[in-house]
């Protein structure tokens, strides 16, 4: 079953990438979107109308639909894309109120007591194949709840790239003089096209498929437009084209090489030669692509209202009956693309915070049992639901301590 996510996620990706502008960066819009969708699973009639509307607007769909998508993806993990989500709270806060908010959560979402910073960092490492070593946010005494997602992949290409002289990137490339070598697509196994688009004009497309596992795979799509086209428009085209990438379909708007002039263009060089071919009309089209290796590490502030996390904080505060007064939200993402494969990971996190108590004066008394004293051992007998059993409060042992002993070295 195909998850109906492409439209809402494309719109969300446009807003997230806009916060980074044209700087070199990597992000996981899906990782952030999933956190919003997990929060949507906790929404009910008690959720403030304003928060529910803002959350639905950020998600690009109604809350029940988003919640169902989150459960579908997280409860049926992809063999090549590790995923994890967690919802933690302070001990004694969030676990004593109504438990209805737990019912809709994906079954794989970890729920429990808020870890310390070392525990959060360990969670990030465990669920990102070690690619991200530290949690995006630093925990403090004012944090009452935390929501987190992690996505990670490490794949090998079904057919590795060949190596080319970096000058093949083109005389107009600012990278051709800085690099010694680049990657060239192999003669078989990768897909390339020149595609005409309404948003960005003619773009070039390269698709590298990874080795599959149990029928599941991953395709990394690269899309370039003319240098003057704004990054936001190129990213939007890439998301549009990605809709058919998983099926290996020829992109809509693909141009025939015989409709283009021979010679140099800003994005390609087109040549012609006489060959033996089995093409039906005797006109064979061949493509290859030259790309650089690349890697990136980025940290994104997700507090902009359009990204939905103010609504997430309000939704969870209502569902869990927690005194959330403000929030923090960030994403850390890393990726590497090279001759033999692709790896990427992202951890998205949100903290709900409350005010710390006002400053005052504290006195500490050290109580000294330095002479004979009494001891009484009293039983407790809690039976759940606030009820107690017959042993509750019964003194079981008592003593008068008049002969102390040395602390045992053992």
From TrEMBL:
InterPro entries: Serpin_sf (IPR036186). This is Proteinase inhibitor I4 serpin.
